[in-house]
Here is the input.
Amino acid sequence: MLIFRKPIEGVERPQMPADVVIVGGGPAGMACALRLSQLIDQHNAAHPDSQLSKENIYVLEKAREIGQHCLSGALLDPRSMRELLPGFEKEAPLDAEVTKEAVYFLTEKSKFKLPITPPPLRDHGNYVISLNRFVKWLGSKVEETGITIFTGFAGSELIFSDDSKEARVTGVRTDDKGIDKEGHKKSNFEPGYDLNAKIVILAEGPRGSLTKQLVNKFNLAKNSNPQTYGVGVKELWEVPPGRIAPGEVIYTMGWPLTTKEYGGAWIYGSKENVVSLGFVTGLDYRDPRLDPQHVLQDFKQHPFVAKLLAGGKMIRYGAKSMPYGGWWAIPPVAGNGWMILGDSAGFLNSARLKGIHLAIKSGMLAAETAFEALKKDDSSAATLAAFQRSVESSWIKEELWKVRNMHQGFDHGFYAGMFHSALQMVTGGRGLRNRYPGSAGYQHMRKLSDLPTDGGAEADLLGPAKGDGKLTFDKLTDLYHSGTKHEEDQPSHLVIDDTNICNTRCVKEFGSPCQNFCPANVYEMVDDASQANGKRISLNPSNCVHCKTCDIADPYQIITWVPPEGGGGPNYDGM
Amino acid sequence: MPDTILVVVEQREGKLNRVSWETITAGQAIAATTGWTLEAAVVGASVSALAAEVAAKKVAKVYTVESPKLEPYTPDAFAAALKQFLTTKQPKLVLMPHTYQVRDFVPKLATAMGRTVISDCIGFKHENGKLVFTRQMFQGKFAADVSFASDAPWFVTFQNGAFRGDKAEAAACAAPVEAVSIEIADGVIRNKPQEVFKEAKQAVDLTQAEIIVSVGRGIKEQKNIEMVKQLAEALGGELAASRPICDSGWLPMDRQIGSSGQTVAPKLYLALGISGAIQHIVGMKGSRAIIAVNKDSEAPIFEIADYAVVGNLFDIVPPLIEEVKKAKAGS
Amino acid sequence: MKQVPQKDAPLKLNETAAWIRDDVSYEVNEPDAFALEESLRQKEKHGGEVVVITSGPARSQQVLREALAKGADRAIHLEDNAFVGLDAFNTAKAFAAAIKDEKFDLIFTGLQSDDYGYAQTGVILAELLGWPHATIIMQIEKTDTGIRVKRELEAGFFQFVDMPLPAVLTIQSGINKLRYATLIGIKQAKNKPIRKVPLAEVQSAIGGNLQKIERLYVPQKTKKTEHIEGTPNEIAKKLVDKLRNELRVL
Here is the structure.
C-alpha cells in the first residue's frame, strides 16, 4: 500500500510571524534577500528614528545546506550581479571566463560546426560557474547581512485567508518532520510551522510546488500559454589535462535526437580539468519510452565526446527541469500577499539557454517592491503589482520579448523550428505572428499503439541505458553519483492521485513512461500477479533528485511532486 | 637486548577470547620481520591456566599479571596494573585485539604513561627499519600508514580478522610462565560493575556477523527467502538483503546492506541473486571473502567477487545446504 | 562534537597525500549527534545546562550552531586550522585546557569519529581530568551515589556499572531517535553564546603529535575472481571445499 505525504491533521502548529518569507534559496531567492537587506540597511542609515528590522525576514531552503539542490550548466551573464554587487567578480567563485564558443550540428559519426555562432549563443563576457558553489557564496553574503536562512525546511503548503477568488496568501506552512512510511508520527515528530507572513515570495525553481498550488487555486494561467519544460541531465567529469580549455563552450544539436525532439547538449570547460556536460531534452517528445538519461549516454558515445572524456572520471550526476515556455507562458507574478520569481515564474531565455541572470534580476525587483510594501506596511495586491510593472519595464521583458516565440516555433519539428527562430531573430521575436500558441509538453506524448513497436528512428533513445561503466552508465550507477539521500522512513512525496490508472490504463496505453522519464529510478513497475496486467506501480522516493520531471511529463497529470521531509535530496557539490 | 613485543591477550571469566590468537599471530609476524622477542601477558585475578594455554604457542615467555582486584574488569584496575607492569618491563611494542574491552582501557593506559595508541589496525609494514601500521580511514575509503613519533612502549590494537588466529604458530615446547604480582591501592577503582548478562537484541547488528548470506532481486518471491534462511543457519551466519528486498518488506530494514543500510565487512559475504548495483557494493566490498551467485554472467557483483558462480541460485542453494550440513556434522 | 566530511562525499587526497582536500561538504559526526541527543534528554529529565565543544577551523562552528538549535545552552569553539591535524591525545589535552575553569558533572562523547575511527578522545580526556569513565553506553540513570550506566559488550552481552560523578561517557549510536531542530530553536541559537578559544590559549598544554600519518592512499584491491563451475552438486561440493580449506569458515 502506497501512503502519500500530506500535512498531518489534528495537530497544533507553532505559529511564527514574519515580514517576508522567501521560499527557495536559489539564485532568485538569495538575490531577493540580499537586495532587500541592502535597501533596509540604506533606509536605516538614513532614518535612525524609524528603523526597519531584518529579524523577521526568512529564506526557506529545503536542502540541508545552501546550494545543495542547485544544478545548472552553468553560464552566468554578469549583468544583474553587477547591479546587485558591483565588483562581484573579485570575490565570487567564478570558474572561468568564456573564451571560445562553438555550435555543432551532430550526426551519429560526424559533426558540423555552424560557421557563425548564432547571436543568442555568443557567450563572450559570460562566466562558467558551478551554480551550487555560486549560490553557496551568495548565501553566505545573505547570512552576513543578518537575514536568517532556514536550511532543511521546505515550504510544504501555502496558507490562505479564505477560499475565495480574492483570498490573500497569508503565509507558508513548513514540512512535518518525523512522520513514518505509514503516515504516523514517530517519537521525534515535529509539526511544520505556520509562518504567517506579510509577503510570501516563491522562488522554488522550475515547476515549484507552491507555485503550482497558487496558479491552480486562482487559475492564474488562464491567459498564458501553458508552461513547457525541458529536463537537463548533467554529469561532471574530470578529464586528463589538455582536452578542453577552461572557458571553452560547446553547444550541440541534432544527434542523438531526431528532428521530432527538441533538445541539445552543452559542454563547458571549467577549471582544474573539470568538464560540465549534459543533455537537455524537451519534455514534449512523442515516444513515452524515451529516456533522457539514456539520451545523455548516447550523446557521450559520439566520437568527439568520447575522445574528450576518454580516460576521465565521472564525479557527479544530476538532473533538473527548466521552463521553456518563454514570455507568453509566464503567469501574473504578483498578487494579494505574494510574488513569484525566477524559474518558478518562467524567467528563462530559451534561445540563450540562460536563466540565472534573469532569476537574480527578478529577485532584485521583487525586493524593491517588498521594501516599499514593508515601509508602507501594505502588501495588498495593489501594492505588490508594482513588481509586475517593474518586470514589464525592465530588461527582463526586453530580453524575453525578443525570444517570446522561440520554443513554440519548434512544435512542428526541428527544421520548422529553425526556420521560425531565424525569422524571429530578424523580426524582434515576432516571427509569423505576435504570439505563437503553445501546448503543454505531456499532450505531445503518443500512445504506444500509435508508434512503431521497435521505436523507429528513436529506437536508440528508448528504454534504460545499459552503460559500459567507463564512458556510459546505467541509471542506478549515475544516480549513486548524485549523492541523493533522504530519511527512508517517510511517506512517499510523489503523490499519485489514482494508482489504478498506473496499473490498469497507463501500463497498456503508454507503457509506464515514468520508468523512463524519471532520471532517478524512482518509479518502477513490479510484477504483481493480483493485478489485471500483472504489474503494479512501486516507488523508491528516496532516490528522487527533485527535478520535477514526473510532475511535468506524466501523460495523465496525476503525479504531484511535494517536498519530502526537509534536509533530504541530492548533493550537488560542484554542480 | 633485543626489543620486546608484548601481546596482551584478553580473557573473560576464565576463558580466553579467541581473537587473542590473532594478536599472537600478528606478534609472531612482527617478530619475524624485526627480529624482536615476542612475549605475552594474561591479565586477571587468577589466570595461570590461561597462561599455560598461551605458552603452548611460540612465544619466548608468558606473564601472569594478577591481582584479585582485576576481577571483575574495570578500566581503572587494568590501566593501573598494566602501567605498573609495563613501567618495569618496558617493551617496545604492546599489541592487543581491538575489542570493546581494550577500547575501554588502553587509551587510558597509554595516556597515563604519556604514550599513544594506534588503534584498529589491519596490518603493518616494516620499511627501512621503520614500523608503520596500516588502518582504514573515512570508513574504508582510504588506508593510512601510521608511525609512532613518541618513545616506547608503543601501543597498537588490531582489528578483528586482520590476522588469522589459526595461523598462530605452536611452540615445540611450552614457554616459561612468570608470575607478576600487582598492587592496586584502595580507591583506584571507581566503577562498580554488576553481573554481565545477555539480552535479546531488538535489532540485529550485521556489523558483528562473521558470515552473512545476502539476497537480492534474484530471489523472485518472498517465500523463497526461507531456503536462504536455512543456508544462513547451516553456515551459522546472518541473513541480509539488498535494498529492494527490504523496501518490499520481505525482510526488515535492519537487514539491509548498502549505502542506505548497513556497511559490513564480514569474513564471508555470500551474495545470492544480487546484481551488484553500486549502492549495494559500497556496503559490503570490504568483506574479506565474497562469493556471488547470479544467473547473469555480466552482473557487476562478479567484479568484486572472489568466487563466482554463474548459475541459478534455486539450483545451487539446496545442494549447498546439504553439503554444508554434511561438512559440519563430519568435522 | 566533531565535524567530519559528509559520509557520501567524494574525497580526494591533497598534494602531499598526507590528508584529504578541504573542499568537501561537512556534517556533524553522527555518533556525536547521539551523544548530544542523550545529553538533551538528561537535561529534560534532571535540569541543568548542556554545553557543546568542538575544535577545528571556522567551518566547524556549524556543528555548534546545530547543537544550539537543538537545545544546547552554550558552546565552546577551539577555533584554528591547526586543530585539524592534532592527534587524539593532543585534542583531548586542548579540550582539558579549555574547560579547566568549568564545573561539568558529565562529559559525553560519541563512540568514535566517522573519519579517523580511533574511539580514543573520550577515554584520554577522562584520564587527563582524572575522572572515571565508561564506554559504549546505552542508558544512564541517576542514583544517590552518582550514576548507573548500561554498557554494551560484544556478542549481545550487557552490563550495568555504578559510577561516581563527575565522569566521562562515550555514548552508543542508535540508542535514541535524533530530534529535529525547530525554526524557533534555530532562531534562538543565534543569541546563545559561543566562546572562542584561540590556539594560543591552549598552546602550552599541547605538544607534538605522538603519532604520524605517513601517507593516505586508496586501498588497492588485488582481486582475482575464481569461477566455480559444474553441475549444481559439483558446485556445492567445490564451494564447501573452499569454505572449509581456504576461507576457514567451516
